[in-house]
Design brief:
mainly alpha, 76% helix, 0% strand, globular
Length: 70
């Protein structure tokens, strides 16, 4: 739900609120590469290039990891 809210806020250029929503999404699902990518985008729009790059890097790492098998 947080990720979807963040997407809606991104589309409305409400960067700070979007970043908060994505922060919550990442806290609840730290291995969600897509949420981290969107979080990075929101941070970048806010001028936090260092924070954005950290999220983008983690998203790339997660995307490269094979899915866990049960």
């Amino acid at each position: 739900a947080w990720k979807m809210l963040g997407l809606c806020l991104l589309r409305r250029n409400r960067w700070e609120e979007a970043a908060g929503a994505f922060a919550a999404a990442v806290e609840l699902a730290p291995d969600d590469a897509e949420a981290r990518q969107f979080f990075g985008t929101a941070l970048e729009k806010l001028g936090d290039r260092e924070g954005a790059e950290a999220q983008f890097q983690r998203a790339r790492e997660l995307a490269a990891e094979p899915p866990e098998r049960e």
